[in-house]
Amino acid sequence: MMAKTTISRRTVLTLLAGTGTAALIGCDPVRSRNSAPAVTLPDALLVGIDDGLGVLRGTDRLTIPHSIATADGLAIYATAPDGADTAFWRIDSTTGHTSTRVTLPGRWAPQAVSANGTKVALTSNEVNATKGRPDGRDVTPVLIADVTGVQHRLDLRGNFVPETFTEDLAGLFVLEWLPAKAPDRYRVRVVDLATKVPGPLYTRTKAPIPPGAEEEMRGDGRQAVLAPDRTILYTLYTHQPDHRHTRSLISGRPGSTVHAFVHTLNLTARWAYCIDLPHPFGEASANGHAMTISPDGGRLYVADVTSGNVAEISTEELTVRRTATLPKGIGTGHAVADRDRLFVGAGTVVRRMDLTRLGLAAEWPVREPVTGLVLSPDGNRLYVGQTDAVSWHDSATGTELGRAAVPGLAVVRGLAG
C-alpha cells in the first residue's frame, strides 16, 4: 500500500537556498540568483522536503508542493489552489518539463498514483495508507484524473483511503476504515471504476473472499514497496493485536500471534496474502522498521533496528527464508539493497550486510540521524539523508565523498528519473 510506494506523501512550498536553486512559486519554476557556490550531486535524487517533494539534480533544486511521485521517480503530479478549484499537472523529473495544467472542480489533494504512472487518485482531504487513521466520515469523495482531466468521480459510502490501482486501471484498491464515523480498524477492498462499487479481493486460488472472511487490521502501515515489474505491492504492517488472516478466517483456524507481517497485494489478479514475520518484529516502534526489495524483485528485506533483527523473504514462495541479527539501534529505520548487499541505517550509524551469508560486513558513523538511504545506479555511492543535508559515501568503505545542504530535508526517497 504504497512504493512505497512509501509510496509519500506533501503540502507546503519550501524554497531551497543556494545557487542554481529552482522552486515552484505558484505554478512556474524560477531559479535563485544567489551567487554562492553550490555543491553538484553526482546523481539526481527525489526527496521529501517538509511537506512537499524535491528534485535535486546537479546544482539545481526543484521543490513541488501538494504533489506525489510515480514509483520509478520519473514523474511528479502536482496540484495548486486555483480559486475554488484545483490546478493539476505532471512534471517530468528528468527534464523539468510540465504538462498542460488542467482544472479539477473543487479542492483536491493527490493520494495515490498507478503503478504505470498515468493515473492519480485524489481526495478532498489529505489522507494516506501509511500515515495513521483518517477522521470519521460517512462519505468519501475520490477523483480519478490524468493529464487530460477528470476520468471518474466517486462518492464512496463509508470511510475510504486510496492505496493504488489495479494493473489494468479498471479498479482502485482502497483501505476501508471501520466503523466509518469512529474508525479503529480497516480492510483492503477494490473499487470497480465502471460501477463505482467497492468489493472484496480474491484469494491466491482466485476465488472471491467470502463474506465475513475479509481481514480487518488495527495496526500501523509502516512502508510500501512496489515490485520492479510493477505487479505486486508489498506493505509492511506492525502492531497487529488479535489479527486473523483471511486464510485463518476461511479455515476456522485461530488467529496468529505475530505482531508484524508483509501484506502482499497482486495488482493483476487482485489477490492478497500476508507473510508473517517472526518474533520480535512488530513489538517495538513502527518507525524502527524498514523494508526494501532486491533489484530483481526476488527478495524482500525487513529490518527492525530496535531489536536488531533482519528477515529475508522469498517473493516467489511468500515465506521468510532466513533471519539474522545486527547490533541494536535507535531511531527511524531505513534500508536499501542491491544484488549482494543490504544497507540499514538508523540514528547516526549505517550498517552494511553481506547477503551471501546475511551477516554484518561493515558499519560506519554519519554526522546526523539518518533520514533515508539510496544507492547510485552503479552501486558505487550510497546517499544518506541527514539533518538539512545529503551526504554520499563510497558504498564499500563508507568514506564520505561529498555533502550538499538541503534545508528542510525530511527524507531521501530515491533516484529521480
Question: What does this entry look like structurally?
Answer:
- With 417 residues, the protein is mainly β.
- The chain has one helix at residues 246-251; strands at residues 22-25, 28-31, 41-49, 52-58, 60-64, 67-69, 75-82, 85-92, 102-104, 109-113, 120-123, 139-146, 149-157, 159-165, 171-178, 185-192, 197-199, 220-226, 232-238, 260-266, 272-276, 289-293, 299-304, 309-314, 319-325, 334-337, 341-346, 349-354, 359-365, 373-375, 381-386, 389-394, 400-405, 409-415.
- A 4-stranded antiparallel beta sheet has the order 5-4-3-34, with no helix packed on it.
- Residues 1-36 and 246-254 have low confidence and may be disordered.
Strand order in space, largest sheet:
5-4-3-34
- What are the low-pLDDT stretches, counting only 5+ consecutive residues below 50? 1-36, 246-254
The fraction of residues assigned to DSSP E strands is: over 45%
Oligomer: single chain
How many strands, what sense, and barrel or not for the largest sheet?
4 strands, antiparallel
Distance between the termini: 22 Å
Give the averaged pLDDT, no decimals.
86
Task: List the defining traits of the structure above.
single chain; 417 residues; mainly beta; four-stranded antiparallel β-sheet; 1 helix; 1% helix; globular; disordered N terminus
Draw up the topology in text.
Elements: E1 22-25, E2 28-31, E3 41-49, E4 52-58, E5 60-64, E6 67-69, E7 75-82, E8 85-92, E9 102-104, E10 109-113, E11 120-123, E12 139-146, E13 149-157, E14 159-165, E15 171-178, E16 185-192, E17 197-199, E18 220-226, E19 232-238, H1 246-251, E20 260-266, E21 272-276, E22 289-293, E23 299-304, E24 309-314, E25 319-325, E26 334-337, E27 341-346, E28 349-354, E29 359-365, E30 373-375, E31 381-386, E32 389-394, E33 400-405, E34 409-415
Antiparallel strand pairs: 1-2, 3-4, 3-34, 4-5, 6-7, 7-8, 8-9, 10-11, 11-12, 12-13, 14-15, 15-16, 16-17, 18-19, 19-20, 20-21, 22-23, 23-24, 24-25, 26-27, 27-28, 28-29, 30-31, 31-32, 32-33
